[in-house]
Amino acid sequence: MMPSVEILAVGTELLLGQLIDTNTAFIAQHLAESGIDVHATHIVGDNQKRIAAAIRDALERSDGVITTGGLGPTVDDLTKEAVCDALERGTELHEPSLHAMQEFFASIGREMRENNRKQAYVPRGSHVLHNLQGTAPGFIVESGNRFVVSMPGVPREMKPMFVEHVLPWLKKHFNVHETILTRVIHTVNVAESEIDYRISDIFSALENPKIAVLAYEGRCDVKVMAKAATQEEAQALIAPIQREIERRLEGHVFGHDGDTLESVIHTLLQKHRWRAAVAESCTGGRIAAALTAVPGSSKSFVGGIIAYDNDIKITELGVAPDLLARAGAVSEETVLAMAEGARTVLRADIALATTGIAGPDGGTPEKPVGLVWFGLSSAVHQAEVKNSPEPQAVSQVAVEKWERIQGGSVSRRVEFRGDRTAIQSRATTYALGLLWNHLARVLR
Ligand code: ATP
Predict the structure, then answer these.
(1) Burial bucket for residue 186 (CB in 10 Å: 0-12, 13-18, 19+)
(2) CB distance 219 to 433 below 8 Å
(3) Which one of 50, 110, 377, 422 is most buried, counting C-beta atoms within 10 A?
(4) How far is CA 145 from the centre of its chain?
C-alpha cells in the first residue's frame, strides 16, 4: 500500500471564501514530489466538534492527517483541542516552547498573557515543531499506526516548518527513498486534442514516467513525471520520452520548465542581435506588454505602435489609404502592410502586427467577431512557401483558417471564440507563438 495522507485546512475565513487556501496546495505539491499520496483535502471552520470529526474520519481512511490553522492564542483557535478529542488524549506543557515565548515577549517588552501560555501546551506525547517565525508551535502526534501533524495557518510560519521538519519526518516515517522529477514541455498553437492524438500511444503504454497534458489559454504543457531512487535515474527515464514527444510535436515546443514564450523569444532575438517591434490593433498593446515583462527586453524589443484608428495605420505605419479602403482594416493586406510599416518606421529586424474584431459588436458573416489577422515582416525569409493550409484547430477556441508564407512575410487568419477579453488574450498568445515559430525556423 502506498502511504497516504489527507490535508485539513482549518479556518472559517476559508469556508466563507474570504481567504484562498494556499497552504493545502503548497503541502500537496511537496507531498506529490516526495511520492506520498494525498487521498483527500478538506476545509473545516473554526469549530472543535467538526474539526475533531474530520480528523477521525480521515484517520479511518488514511495513514495520517496534516492540519494547518487554528493553533493561535484566540478563542477560535481550536485545532489542538480537536486533535486531543479525536485521539482521546490530554495536553501537556512543553517547557521549551513556554520559555521561548517568555523570552520573545520579554524581548519586545510586552507582558505574556494567559492565552499565550495556552499555546505552549501540546497533545500529550507530541513531537513538537518549533515555530521560528511565530509563537504557536506545531506538533506531530502518533496514535497506533496513525498520526496527526498540526501546523500554524500563517503561510510564512507553516512553510519552513513543513519543509524543514514535517517533510523529513514523513519521509522517514513512510520509508520513502524515492524522488519524483517533473519535466514540463511547453507548447503553443497546437490543440490539446491534437497533442493527445499524436502522443496517446506513449501516454497509455507508460506507468513511469507518467504523462499529463494541461491546457491553458492558447497553449498547452505536457508534463513528464518520473519516479526513481535518484534525480539522475529519474532524468534518465525522462530523456527518451521527452525526445519522442518533442519529435512528434515539432514546431510547437517552445521551451521547458521555467521558460515562457516571451523569455524564449528574447533569448532567440538576443542570440542573433535582432530587435523586434509590434503594430497592434485589436490586441491593444498586450503583445508589447508581454514582451516588456521580461527583464533585459530593451536589448531586443524596440517598441510598438498601437494603431487602433485607421488614421494611425495610415499616418504612423504608412498603410496606403486605398489599400485600407479596398481590403478593409481587418484583412491580410492591411496586417502585412502594418507589419512592414512597423519594421521600417521602428527600424526593427522583425515586426509583428495584429488586426481583428474583438467584439462584441462589429462582426459580419464574412468577418465574424473573433476574427484576427496576424502578420509578420521579417529580415530573413522562411525557406518554405505556403498558401492556405487546411483549416486547423489550434485549441478548443481557435481555428486557423488561412496561412501564407512568402519571402519574409507570414500571414495567418484565425477565428477565436470567447468574449472580448478572451479573444484579446488568446490572440496575444497566438501572436507570440507565431513570432517564436518564425524566429526558431530562421534563426537557428
Ligand atoms: P498563528 O496563531 O501562528 O498566527 P494560526 O494557526 O492561529 O496561526 P489561523 O488563525 O488559522 O492560524 O490563521 C492565521 C492566518 O493565516 C489567516 O488569517 C490567514 O491569513 C493565514 N492562513 C490560515 N490558513 C490558511 C490557508 N489554508 N491558506 C492560506 N493562508 C492561510
Answers:
(1) buried
(2) yes
(3) 377
(4) 37
CA of 77 to the centre of ligand 1 (A): 10
Domains of the chain, by residue range, sit at 4-174, 179-256, 261-442
Query: Which of 7, 10, 19, 122 is the best mutation target for the ligand 1 pocket, counting ligand atoms within 8 Å of the beta carbon and taking the most?
Result: 19
Q: Is the dihedral of CA 90, 96, 100, 106 positive or negative?
A: positive
- Reply yes or no on domain 4-174 having CATH 3.40.980.10: yes
Give me ligand 1 centre to Cα 99, in Å: 23
Q: What is the pLDDT of residues 234-262, one digit of tens each?
A: 999 999 999 999 999 999 999 999 999 99
Residue nearest to atom 28 of ligand 1 (CA): 21
Whole-structure pTM value: 0.72
8 A C-beta contact, residue 54 and residue 44:
yes
The most distant pair of C-alpha atoms in the chain lies apart, rounded to whole Å, by: 87
Which three three-digit cell numbers place residue 196? 493527445
CA of 23 to the centre of ligand 1 (A): 9
Contact partners, residue 324, CB within 8 Å, separation at least 6:
310, 313, 314, 334
CATH topology of domain 261-442: Maf protein (3.90.950)
| pLDDT over 70 (residue 1) | no
Q: Name residue 121's beta-bridge partners.
A: 93
Q: What is the pLDDT of residues 43-68, one digit of tens each?
A: 999 999 999 999 999 999 999 999 99
Is the separation of the CB atoms in 439 and 379 below 8 Å?
A: no
Q: What kind of fold does domain 179-256 have according to CATH?
A: Alpha-Beta Plaits (3.30.70)
- Closest ligand 1 atom to residue 71 Cα is 6
